[in-house]
Design a protein that fits this description.
Helix content is 5%, strand content 38%. By secondary structure, it is mainly beta.
Length: 190
């Protein structure tokens, strides 16, 4: 399959004078696009301050996770980084702005690190994952790794980070447990 492993997903919104309605996940639509994922857990985060950065995170095998990320209040800049060994796009990233208004979602498959930074205060993010949280498989890479070079839209210097995220290794220090599946990372389709 030559398609992009990371996908920007958007379902149609049906609106009237009351507001709108949208289906945010339809398994058969994902299957028709070649994404065969069973989600087992939903996660919900609230970030109080603008410039809160969470990531770059992943779970390693045997609890590796696919993720489907959406912003339900406020806005984020959401990224996925290719961390599959022997991938021609290893260390490359793609990103998109997800907002409560635009309804876009980012599908981040196994083998990619995930991170986001909040663009507004009191931002809420919900994401589905395909494996349960397993602390022994929890991993990450530094948010500011120069070999990855994410162009974070920060307006006030350094982001707000957890102690855990401050201590993550660089990409050079990272030994990837993920195998390349033949699908290089490509720019996101609008």
């Amino acid at each position: 399959m030559a398609d992009n492993p990371v996908r920007l997903v958007q379902f149609r919104r049906f609106g009237d004078d009351r507001g709108w309605f949208s289906e945010t996940f339809r398994e058969k639509d994902f299957l028709s696009q070649g994404i065969n994922v069973r989600f087992v857990q939903d996660n919900h985060s609230l970030s109080r301050t603008r410039g809160t950065l969470r990531g770059i995170h992943f779970q390693s095998p045997s609890h590796a996770q696919d993720k489907l990320v959406r912003c339900v209040r406020g806005s984020i800049f959401d990224i996925a980084v290719d961390i599959r060994k022997n991938s021609p796009t290893y260390g490359k990233w793609v990103g998109a702005e997800l907002t409560a208004e635009n309804g876009k979602q980012l599908f981040v498959p196994i083998g990619f690190g995930h991170a986001f930074v909040t663009l507004e205060p009191d931002t809420e993010v919900i994401y589905k994952v395909s494996a349960y949280y397993a602390p022994e498989c929890d991993g990450g890479i530094r948010w500011d790794d120069p070999d990855i070079g994410v162009d974070w839209p920060l307006t006030t210097g350094s982001p707000q980070l957890s102690a855990k995220d401050l201590a993550l290794p660089s990409l050079k220090e990272f030994e990837s447990p993920f195998e390349y599946d033949g699908r290089p990372l490509a720019p996101l389709a609008p």
